[in-house]
User: Fold these one by one.
Assistant:
Number 1:
Amino acid sequence: MTSINTGRCFMFRANGIPKGQPRARAFAFKGRARMYDPGTAEAWKSDIARACSPMEGLRLPDPIRLCVTFYFPRPKSHYRTNGTLKDTAPRLIHDQKPDIDNCEKAILDALTHIGAWIDDDQVCETQILKRWEQPGESGPGALITIHTLHEAEE
């Protein structure tokens, strides 16, 4: 029987407002199609790279389990004038834009760019959550946990 065990574990907190990786855009120029990346998530991806800098150039060769919890800033409409949360404000769940898959893609792209692993196709398991930041927490950002996986014969 084969089981999957975790090997090494890395945990980081990237501070900043999470952004989704935008889709590549196309336009026509002199009768030819051209593609470009809008670049609207570059600052967020830099925040991720800075937080995960100890993994720079590590190039993990193993399969990866990636767990990310995104913390989004609350809009002013969630608060009363005295600064306390309204009773109608959602407690935890962030179910608005950006889409969860685009947020995940920004993390994968940033970690691939710094060389944390060889390629993001090594990520074979994910757990991605979107939450509102809670009063007293360390602000918007993402808690990123990377586990290397290996198979063990039992």
Note: Strands lie at 2-15, 25-29, 32-36, 64-72, 123-132, 141-153.
Number 2:
Amino acid sequence: MGIKGITITLFDRVQSGLDEFNRPIYREKAVPVKNVLIGEPSTQEIVDERNLSGKVLAYTLAIPKGDTHEWENKRVEFFGEIFEVIGKPTQGLDNLIPLSWNKKVKVSRYGQE
């Protein structure tokens, strides 16, 4: 039996119309993302992130290869809690990574500084 992740919910922004000035109006749409690994950051990673962004790093997510979602500035839900993505995801080259995941996303608890 191989490694298998869980399904998390990504809250994506989709355009729902235009305002009176013809500017787009957005709403959040819950999108399930399957096979995501949830990792606990090291103490050093938590300290480094706090020093760089002011955010408290809660988890690191490993996103499966082939995922095309935009992760920056989004919210995600798993373990019954809401988290916000910190910064931009980092991504490796698919053919140089032997497992099913090639993107790393850092998250903090929503609303926590």
Note: The longest strand covers residues 24-39.
